[in-house]
């Protein structure tokens, strides 16, 4: 992969931040769909990602170069994409929808905060990316800030916390798998997103329909699913995979954690989920940690790109 074909580090950071803004708004739309439209969580998640996968599949097969990539994927790459789809879409997204349905959105979001810490600890051994002391300190601050936030009365439920814990583990695995696949540079972000999402989404939809049945969609719920599928999923996940070509796993995970601040603010404004004094202190600590963990020295950046 030529250097000119890759986004600059600053552009990659900006792209990743834009994606987190779209994803943060998703949590509010999901809460509206679950509460106001009474959509069942697993089926809701499956519909969102299945529609997005169909959009991406149509986009992919309409381009000759991407069709060629699809037809020439080797067995090892297909295996990685299947695992990525199952972990990042079937498990992570399904668990998140269940958690949001069972407890406040900001609480479920904060449960994902230790992702940066675990990714920082595991990335060296799992995918061969060295982590700087500054990045590790930032990841610890993110986890510590989340603990402060969660020490308040946040309306957590046992179902929500179990689902959030499952989502946390799958999110860590997904971050490492996603970085491993995307840093190779031999498969386009569009193909990575299309294949992995298609596999994970349709399995999630099948499970959701089997357990919860198909919901009666209103124009409002159909609009929510459509927006989440096309803008906040099909477009956003492709942009995210593009950014991951340049960002280290711990960086992309820390940028993802800025969603903690965004979701808390949006939930306060639109859902009335006021964080309280401990929540605000926790959010400030998380913000500092996210900044440290996504900032790296130029030498480290060069080494990361060289090994991509």
**Helix/strand/pairing category:** mainly alpha
Number of domains: 1
What does the largest sheet look like? none
Q: Which consecutive residue ranges, at least 5 long each, have pLDDT under 50?
A: 1-5, 296-308
Strand content: under 5%
Radius of gyration from CA coordinates: 18 Å
Count the E strands.
0
- Total number of helices: 14
Shape: globular
Features:
308 residues, mainly alpha, 14 helices, 0% strand, disordered C terminus
What features would you describe in this structure?
The protein has 308 residues and is an all-alpha fold. It has one domain (3-306). 80% of the residues lie in helices and 0% in strands. Helix 2 packs antiparallel against helix 4 (75-102), helix 4 runs antiparallel to helix 8 and helix 11 runs antiparallel to helix 13 (276-294). The longest helix has 28 residues, at 75-102. The model is unreliable at 1-5 and 296-308 (pLDDT under 50).
Describe the structure concisely for a colleague.
80% of the residues lie in helices and 0% in strands. By secondary structure, it is mainly α. The longest helix has 28 residues.
Task: Itemize the secondary structure elements and their pairings.
Elements (H helix, E strand, L loop, with lengths): L8 H27 L5 H21 L2 H8 L3 H28 L2 H6 L4 H13 L5 H18 L7 H25 L6 H24 L6 H26 L4 H8 L2 H13 L4 H19 L3 H9 L2
Helix pairs in contact: 1-10, 1-12, 2-4, 2-9, 2-10, 4-8, 4-9, 6-7, 6-8, 6-11, 7-13, 9-10, 11-13
């Amino acid at each position: 992969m030529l250097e000119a074909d890759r986004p600059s580090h600053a552009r990659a950071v900006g792209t990743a931040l834009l994606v987190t803004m779209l994803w943060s708004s998703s949590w509010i739309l999901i809460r509206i769909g679950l509460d106001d439209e009474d959509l069942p969580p697993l089926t809701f998640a499956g519909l969102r990602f299945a529609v997005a996968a169909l959009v991406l599949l149509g986009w992919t097969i309409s381009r000759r170069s991407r069709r060629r990539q699809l037809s020439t994927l080797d067995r090892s790459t297909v295996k990685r994409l299947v695992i990525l789809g199952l972990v990042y879409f079937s498990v992570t997204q399904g668990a998140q929808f269940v958690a949001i349905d069972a407890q406040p959105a900001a609480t479920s979001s904060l449960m994902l905060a230790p992702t940066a810490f675990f990714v920082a600890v595991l990335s060296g051994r799992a995918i061969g990316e060295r982590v700087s002391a500054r990045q590790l300190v930032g990841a610890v601050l993110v986890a510590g800030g989340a603990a402060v936030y969660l020490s308040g009365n946040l309306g957590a439920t046992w179902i929500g916390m179990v689902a959030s814990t499952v989502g946390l583990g799958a999110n860590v695995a997904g971050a490492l798998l996603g970085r491993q696949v995307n840093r190779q540079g031999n498969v386009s972000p569009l193909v990575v997103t299309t294949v992995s999402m298609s596999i994970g989404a349709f399995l999630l939809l099948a499970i959701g329909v089997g357990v919860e049945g198909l919901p009666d969609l209103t124009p409002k719920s159909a609009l929510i699913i459509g927006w989440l599928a096309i803008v906040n999923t099909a477009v956003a996940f492709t942009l995210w995979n593009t950014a991951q070509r340049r960002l280290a796993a711990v960086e992309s995970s820390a940028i993802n954690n800025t969603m903690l601040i965004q979701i808390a603010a949006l939930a306060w404004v639109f859902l009335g989920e006021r964080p309280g004094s401990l929540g605000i202190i926790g959010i400030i600590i998380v913000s500092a940690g996210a900044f440290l963990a996504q900032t790296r020295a130029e030498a480290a950046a060069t080494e990361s790109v060289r090994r991509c």
